[in-house]
Amino acid sequence: MTTQDELRPTLTTEAGAPVADNQNTETAGVGGPALIQDQLLFEKLAHFNRERIPERVVHARGAAAYGTFTVTADVTPYTRAGFLSEIGKQTEVFLRFSTVAGNLGSADAVRDPRGFALKFYTEEGNYDLVGNNTPVFFIKDAIKFPDFIHTQKRDPYTGSQEADNVWDFWGLSPESTHQVTWLFGDRGIPASYRHLNGYGSHTYQWQNEAGEHFWVKYHFKTDQGIRNLTQDEANRLAGEDPDSHQRDLREAIERGEFPTWTVQVQIMPAADAANYRFNPFDLTKVWPHADYPPVEIGTLELNRNPDNVFAEVEQSIFSPAHFVPGIGPSPDKMLQGRLFAYADAHRYRVGINADHLPVNRPHATVARTNSRDGHLYDGRHGRQKNYEPNSFGGPVETGRPLWAPTAVTGTTGDHAAPSHVEDDDFVQAGTLYRLYSEEEKQRLIANLAGFIAKVSQDREDIVERAIDNFRKADADYGQRLETAVRELRKK
Ligand code: NDP
Predict the structure, then answer these.
(1) How would you class 226 by CB atoms within 10 Å of its CB: exposed for 0-12, middle for 13-18, buried for 19 or more?
(2) Burial (Cβ within 10 Å: 0-12, 13-18, ≥19) of residue 435
(3) Mutate which of 178, 203, 216, 286 for ligand 1 pocket (most atoms within 8 A of beta carbon)
(4) Residue 3: what pLDDT?
(5) Residue 174 CB: number of other CB atoms within 10 A?
């Protein structure tokens, strides 16, 4: 035995007892059946059977890193959030990138929005900004989300994603035209997680110390520059290196090449919202930069890889409902649905004490609740009383809401989101199409046509509805797409 071997610790069971033989099961005689008293065998097999937790229904496939957010501008006129309170202030962050539709083991280099889920470990609690790499989304009401995702995932009969389902839903949901135009453009397949922008996408509320409130949209501009893959490049890479984006992020950080993003916000005074030309709470719309110019407020750097992917990435949880004082929700109906759905998913997927795990718990403060027990409760509260009010010195409420109250009018009902002067499902899709270079337009048409052409030959109605939406966005867009689709469907 070498000195090196002598220094190695003893292998043990989960209960800490030394293991004598980890290679041979105890049997009744040489070549005989296994004995039930070999508990090491059963402990190993039983643990192995339980290694997986339910994967995320969406955003299953992802990679993450820790980093630092640094404030670069005075935003105290707009928000009283402590972590934004002074220039130069730094806050630890954890950022998880992901694809949306693919399962846990799927490839990174695919056409899909990318999740951009950011956790700020602030001294006033964790603030989660659960964004994407796109400023808009396919739908504007969370009640449509399960239906939408069902069309992106596997068909109940074929077990595969089906062009019929995808285009049927998009054709019948014209509000998706803007996001689909973005997705099939060049940014639909980023070259890596370092080369994409992040967007908060939803409108959020900021409230200042005086109680005034503003509506804001967040932008994270990659300092590495936007880089994308063509469909052919992505097809090749997805086969050759399914983990391409995950590997790229980890290796860049290992090399000390820390990716950074410039953080900007668009700020809308609350009084503007009612009469703005677009519904500012409609997730299928942007606020054009000319109306509300993005202003720089900070920088974001990723500089530390997680040590354990399962513990820190798979078990990480983000919730758009994790706000801090000075930041709150808007009436965006997609956001309102997400405020419920994320925390609900974590309770099912990771468990009721998911927020006790090191990656999820506050790092710059401590959580003080009267909630107790449940699976894997760590006993952190010891003998403390678990109710309020109490006269034993337990934690007390502040009496000050995190965000400002907003006025509402009208009656209850299944209302569609209110339309503003220039709202329709097509105007901003048309703007985006016309913003693309001629070369990008050609790639957009080829990408869209290639997918629409896969719709079953006997479902021309689905094809026609799909093309009609793009026609309404821009006549040239619709006409070119129709020509390309018809050509492919003749073959
Ligand atoms: P602007 O001309 O002021 O802004 C154009 C913005 O479009 C750019 O700043 C850039 O956003 C984004 N952009 C540029 N090239 C591409 C591309 N190839 N693919 C996707 N996005 C691109 O016009 P508007 O603000 O009126 O926006 C026009 C359209 O641009 C919108 O309809 C929307 O689809 C898209 N867009 C708008 C954003 C916004 O917040 N206003 C953000 C992103 C896209 P960025 O600087 O974020 O890279």
Answers:
(1) middle
(2) exposed
(3) 286
(4) 63
(5) 18
Does the pLDDT at position 6 exceed 80?
Answer: no
Question: Cα separation of 40 and 350, whole Å?
Answer: 26
- 388, 364 contact by CB (below 8 A): no
Summarised one tens digit per residue, pLDDT across range 369-408 is 999 999 999 999 999 999 999 999 999 999 999 999 999 9
pLDDT for the residue 350: 97
CA of 196 to the centre of ligand 1 (A): 13
Whole-number Å distance, alpha carbon 405 to ligand 1 midpoint, is 31
Please determine, for residue 1, whether its predicted confidence score (pLDDT) is greater than 90.
Answer: no
CATH 3.30.465.60 fits 62-135+193-356, yes or no: no
Q: What is the pLDDT of residues 283-327, one digit of tens each?
A: 999 999 999 999 999 999 999 999 999 999 999 999 999 999 999
Say if ligand 1 is within 6 A of residue 289 CB: yes
Confirm whether 59 is a catalytic residue. yes
Q: Whose CA is nearest to atom 3 of ligand 1?
A: 289
**Closest C-alpha among 283, 280, 281, 300 to residue 292:** 280
Burial of residue 321, with CB atoms counted within 10 A of its CB: 0-12 exposed, 13-18 middle, 19 or more buried: middle
Percent of the chain past pLDDT 70, that is, above it, reads: 99
CB 193 within 8 A of CB 163: no
> What are the residues whose beta carbons fall under 8 Å from the beta carbon of 380, sequence distance 6 or more?
356
